[in-house]
Design goal:
Blueprint lengths: L2 H13 L3 E3 L8 H4 L4 E7 L2 E4 L6 E3 L5 E2 L4 E4 L4 E5 L5 E4 L4 E9 L5 E16 L6 E6 L2 E5 L3 E7 L3 E8 L2 E5 L2 E5 L3 E6 L5 E5 L8 H16 L12 H7 E6 L3 E6 L11 E7 L3 E6 L12 E4 L5 E4 L11 E3 L17 E5 L5 E3 L5 E5 L15 H11 L1 E5 L48
Parallel strand pairs: 10-11, 23-25
Antiparallel strand pairs: 1-25, 2-5, 2-7, 3-4, 3-6, 6-9, 7-8, 8-10, 9-10, 10-13, 11-12, 12-15, 13-14, 14-17, 15-16, 17-18, 19-20, 21-22, 21-26, 23-24, 27-28, 28-29
Helix pairs in contact: 3-4
C-alpha cells in the first residue's frame, strides 16, 4: 500500500462519524515517556516473565509487551522469541534467563537496547537499523553491534561461548576488547577473569535448526510484503502468513485474518495485562495479534466481518480505534484495580490430536489461534474449506503457539503470582460476542 493510500485512510477515519470509541487507559504515550515496548513474539512450553510489578514470575504469553526492567526465563522445553521494532529477534532456548535493563529512546529518536544473558543460550539476529544501539551483556562482558549480525551466546557454569554466524561483533571486558568475525567462536573462561580464546570454527548446537527455521519464516513472509503496514517492521511477517488484504469500497485496503467471518470480532480472545507505568492494556491471543492492536483502525465492514485498516503512528499500550461497530457491540473492559492478568475467552480454541499433537482441528472463527508459524501450508485455501464446512483438520510440524494456558478460562488478579483461576461455567457460546463479558473457557 502506498504512503498516499495510508494517508487517505487515516484522513477518512478521522473525519468519519462512525467512530464508536477509543479505548484509553489514561497512561502516558510511549513517545512522550521515552519508554519502548518490544514484542514477545513466540512462546512455546514453560516460559515465565517477571514484569517488574513486584509479584515475581508469572506465566508468559504471546504478544505480551516487554518493557525496561522485565526478566524472561524458560524452563524445560520452554522456548521464546522477542521481536524488536526493526525486525531484530532474540531467541532463547530451554533453561535460559535474560533481562532487559534498558529499552529506551534517545532524544534523536534512536533506540537503545541492552539485554543481559544471565544463564542459558540465546540467539540474536540483529537487523542493524541506522543509529540504533544494541548491546548484549554476559558474565563481565559487553557485546556491542553496529551492523547486522547473527550470533549465538551460551552461558555454561565455567565458560561462556560466542559464535558468530554472520556479521561481526565487538566484545569488551576485564581482559580487554575482542573482535569476533564471521564463522569464528570466542570462549571466555569465567574462572579466570573471563580470559578469552578465539577459534576459526563453529560448533553446532541442537537448537541451531530451530533458530534457522524461525529466521527463514521471517525472511520469507517479510519479503512478501509489498508495502509498509506499520511504522515498524515487527509483526509484518505474521500478517502476511495469517491473513491477507482486500480492497473494500470506501475503506481501501483492509487486512483480515484467515478462519474468521461473521460472528468473529478482534477482541474475542486475549487478556488484560498490567504494565508498570502504563496500567492495563489489551494483549491479543492471536499469533498475528501485534501490529493490528498497536496501530491503525479496526472496522466493521458492510459484509458483516471485521477488518484492520493500517496506517498512523505506533500507539503503544492504547487500543486501536473502532469504526462502524455493530449495534449493541461492547468491548471487554479492563479491570479497575490490581496488577494481574485477566483472560478473555469468547472464541473457539484449537484442538490438538494425534501422536505428539501432530494434528490440529481448525474451526470457524478461530482466526489462526494456536496455529504455529509456517506449521500449516496454504492457510488461505484451508480457510476457504473451514468457512464452508465449519472446521478442517490439518497436520502441523511444530508445536502449537502458546495456547495451553488459554484453556484455563477466566483469571483475575490476586493469587498464584498474579493469576487466580475461576470456573469456566461463565463461558458464552463460541462465536457469540457477549457485551463486556470477560470470562469463560471453551474446551
Amino acid at each position: 500500500m502506498s504512503r498516499l493510500n495510508i494517508k487517505l485512510l487515516m484522513h477518512a477515519a478521522a473525519a468519519s462519524s462512525l467512530i464508536f470509541t477509543i479505548l484509553s487507559f489514561a497512561v502516558p504515550a510511549v513517545a512522550d515517556s521515552q519508554v519502548r515496548m518490544v514484542r514477545l513474539s513466540e512462546v512455546q512450553g514453560d516460559v515465565q516473565v517477571d514484569r517488574n510489578t513486584g509479584q515475581g514470575y508469572e506465566k508468559a504469553f504471546l504478544n505480551l509487551p516487554i518493557t525496561q526492567g522485565v526478566k524472561l526465563r524458560t524452563r524445560n522445553e520452554g522456548r521464546a522469541e522477542v521481536e524488536f521494532e526493526d525486525g531484530s529477534t532474540l531467541r532463547v532456548t530451554p533453561n535460559t534467563l535474560i533481562e532487559f535493563p534498558q529499552l529506551s529512546l534517545r532524544d534523536s529518536g534512536a533506540k537503545v537496547s541492552t539485554v543481559h544473558l544471565q544463564e542459558g543460550t540465546a540467539y540474536l539476529n540483529f537487523a542493524g537499523a541506522k543509529d540504533d544501539e544494541f548491546a548484549l551483556t554476559f558474565a563481565h562482558e559487553k557485546l556491542t553491534l553496529a551492523h547486522s549480525a547473527h550470533l549465538r551466546i551460551e552461558m555454561a557454569d565455567l565458560t561462556a561461548t560466542l559464535a558468530v554466524f554472520s556479521g561481526d561483533a565487538q566484545v569488551a571486558g576485564d581482559s580487554g576488547t575482542l573482535a569476533v568475525a564471521k564463522n569464528h567462536t570466542a570462549t571466555f573462561d569465567l574462572t579466570d577473569d573471563d580470559r578469552h580464546s578465539l577459534a576459526k570454527d563453529l560448533e553446532p548446537d541442537p537448537f541451531d535448526a530451530w533458530d534457522k527455521e524461525q529466521n527463514q519464516y521471517h525472511e520469507v513472509y517479510a519479503s512478501n510484503s509489498s508495502s509498509s503496514y506499520s511504522p515498524y517492521a515487527y509483526g509484518i511477517s505474521d500478517l502476511n502468513y495469517y491473513g491477507s488484504f482486500s480492497n473494500y469500497p470506501g475503506y481501501g485496503n483492509v487486512w483480515q485474518p484467515y478462519f474468521a467471518g461473521a460472528g468473529w470480532d478482534p477482541f474475542m480472545n486475549g487478556a488484560w495485562a498490567f504494565a508498570p507505568g502504563f496500567g492495563y492494556g489489551w494483549v491479543s491471543a492471536y499469533p498475528w495479534g501485534w501490529t493490528p492492536y498497536h496501530s491503525g483502525n479496526w472496522v466493521y465492514l458492510p459484509t458483516g466481518a471485521w477488518g484492520w485498516q493500517p496506517g498512523g503512528s505506533f500507539i503503544g499500550w492504547n487500543a486501536p480505534r473502532i469504526i462502524n461497530s455493530p449495534t449493541h457491540y461492547a468491548l471487554p473492559q479492563p479491570p479497575s484495580s490490581g496488577q494481574g492478568t485477566v483472560i478473555v475467552n469468547r472464541g473457539p480454541l484449537p484442538i490438538q490430536s494425534g501422536r505428539s499433537f501432530s494434528k490440529m482441528e481448525i474451526t470457524k472463527n478461530s482466526a489462526g489461534l494456536g496455529i504455529p508459524r509456517g506449521g500449516v501450508k496454504n492457510l488461505s485455501q484451508l480457510s476457504g474449506t473451514v468457512q464452508q464446512q465449519g472446521f478442517a483438520t490439518a497436520k502441523v510440524h511444530t508445536a502449537p503457539v502458546g495456547i495451553g494456558w488459554w484453556h484455563g478460562g477466566y483469571s483475575t488478579p490476586g493469587q498464584m503470582g498474579g493469576w487466580q483461576s475461576a470456573s469456566a461455567a461463565n463461558a458464552s457460546p463460541a462465536g457469540h460476542s457477549s457485551a463486556g463479558h470477560s470470562g469463560g473457557g471453551h474446551h
